[in-house]
Amino acid sequence: MLHARTAPHEKRRALREALSSGRLMRVPGAVNPLTAVLVQELGFDGAYVSGAVVAADLALPDIGLTTLSEVATRGGQIARVTDLPTLIDADTGFGEPMNAARTVQALEDAGLAGCHLEDQVNPKRCGHLDGKAVVGADEMVRRIRAAVGARRDDGFVICARTDAAAVEGLDAAIERARAYVDAGADMVFPEAMRGPADFEAFRAAVDVPLLANMTEFGKSELLTAEQLESLGMNMVIYPVTTLRLAMGAVEEGLRTLRDEGTQAGLVDRMQTRKRLYELLDYPAYNAFDGGVFDFTV
Predict the structure, then answer these.
(1) Cα–Cα 20 to 30 A to 264, which of 59, 89, 93, 124?
(2) Which of 118, 163, 198, 229 is catalytic?
């Protein structure tokens, strides 16, 4: 009730243990806190907060327009309601290396289990769009070092994302990843991999856990969890899936409501009130109210 029972440091420890277990963590994006509750109930391994989704929820494109406070607030709202570890997209760290340091501390305070920082120029753009640009490897190394040096809980996972494969080629991206690991990154996120061969190359070259991004409509082949695990990936995120599912249903429903003048034909496709109350755990709140008000002095 009100929040998860598991403390942030315990979630961070669980994330590190899962990343070193040899099995693949399946981590869907949570478009909002209620989705995170469902992610946990359905047996996934973690929740993910996508920067693209936070931006889209604000009706903004994913081009670096969101602020640290907006992202940290949404991340904290999602982390609050789930016992699963929550990983969040911290874009480029919202500025210079000192900004990346502040970002890590803000996300720690919000209860997140880890974040990823990327080597795009600031402002960034979606990792599966053309026309990306990356900073020099030395500048990204400074971002990582600042982030690692600023964290107060060693359990907080700092993941280095590299977008360099689409800009400089796969070999250059791998060399960057090695430098980021030397700078202290706990995990590497090679963005916009084309298929199994790219993941295999990263796995052969990098010793730390690897994150695979299975986003729809992007440049990457959509591989199954079994395929990714066989390739040695440690985590897979589905960053925008829940937003796309939800908005597809919302748009279709609104068109029906506009054209037919009633939602009657849509009711059987809606989540019921009973199911919503189950996810919200209404009985726990009722029991709490009873314990507070039903007493005598």
Answers:
(1) 59
(2) 118
